[in-house]
What does this fold into?
Amino acid sequence: MKTANHLRTTLLVAVLLASSISINAKPIPEIVKETKPAIVEIVAMDEKGTPKALGTGFFISSDGLPASSPTYKDWRCQFLALKA
It folds into this structure.
């Protein structure tokens, strides 16, 4: 009997605590507005400047260092990162 009462009390306290927690999620348009400046388009070009592949990445430092997936690592091309 004591165990059942203890479980009920614990559950009630947990429900009350959970109901008092507010989630401050931002709307998607606001998230896009805040993060879009960090997105870049990656253009892989051959030695003649002809585009060979396109991709995306994002800036990882304030001095403009972009990161992308390792898909391009084996390409022998020049890369150009364009701000989206």
Notes: Residues 2-20 form the longest helix (19 residues).
